Amino acid sequence: MSRIKLFKELFGNISTTGAITFSSKPLVDKMLSFADFKGAKVLVELGGGDGSITKGIVERMDKDAKLLVFEISRNFCNNLEKMFPQKNVVIICDSAENMDKYLNGDKADFILSSLPFSLIPKDIRASIYRKSRESVSEKGKFIQICYSYLLKYQFADYFSHIKTSFTLKNFPPAFILICN
Predict the structure, then answer these.
(1) Is the separation of the CB atoms in 34 and 176 below 8 Å?
(2) What are residue 112's DSSP bridge partners?
(3) Is 115 helix (H, G, I), strand (E, B) or coil?
(4) 124: three-class secondary structure by DSSP
(5) Rounded to whole angstroms, how far apart are CA atoms 119 and 22?
(6) Largest pairwise CA distance in the chain
(7) Contact, 34 vs 144, CB < 8 A?
(8) What are phi and psi of 91, to 5 degrees?
(9) Strands 174-179 vs 136-146: parallel, antiparallel or unpaired
(10) What pLDDT was estimated at residue 118?
(11) Strand pairing partners for 69?
(12) Could you say which residues of the chain have pLDDT below 70?
């Protein structure tokens, strides 16, 4: 899919993408710096979008690791399937609130998310938070990109330890929440 079509999809569905542009490489690099991919076997990405975070994960993950990418836009899913034809990268065109159905009882070493939680209905948001907590391994992390520091307080109901980081190297500047 061309960059122009990706931007049309982004702006055409702003209520579900929640972004005015895609994540910058510096933001992706900073987000992923909080995950030690060596030895991680099950990875989950929530909100695959244009594949910028997916690409960073694939470049860092072990060859025998498995990545489940959740994305609700069919157009973005089609693009992601073309970009990542590897058997260990599974593009799932479904809501993140159904992640447990695809994990089949496995626990994720990392859940990496760029979901626009501020735009997601409260009941679905709570379900995603809860299922993320239940689906990440005891030593795993849930790492979230967000544009409002206030989201930290919503995550605090589900995760006992939350570190925050901030980067200006994105438009708009972004927070990264590291939860476990």
Answers:
(1) yes
(2) 45, 143
(3) coil
(4) helix
(5) 17
(6) 41
(7) no
(8) -90, 125
(9) antiparallel
(10) 87
(11) 45, 91
(12) 1-21
Give pLDDT, residue 22. 77
- Domain assignment of residue 150, given as a range: 3-179
Cα separation, 69 vs 51, whole angstroms: 9
- Tally of structural domains, the chain: 1
Q: Do 130 and 123 touch, CB atoms closer than 8 A?
A: no
Is the torsion defined by CA of 68, 71, 76, 78 positive or negative? positive
**pTM for the full model?**
0.89
Alpha carbons 104 and 177: distance in angstroms, whole number: 26
Give the pLDDT score at 110.
98
pLDDT in tens, 120-149: 999 999 999 999 999 999 999 999 999 998
**pLDDT confidence of residue 3:** 53
Could you give the CA distance from residue 152 to residue 172 in angstroms, rounded to a whole number? 18
Sign of CA dihedral 89, 32, 163, 150: negative
Give pLDDT, residue 11.
45
Report the alpha-carbon distance of residue 153 to residue 33 in Å, rounded: 23
Could you tell me the CATH number of the domain that includes residue 46? 3.40.50.150
CB within 8 A of 173, min separation 6: which ones? 147, 166, 167
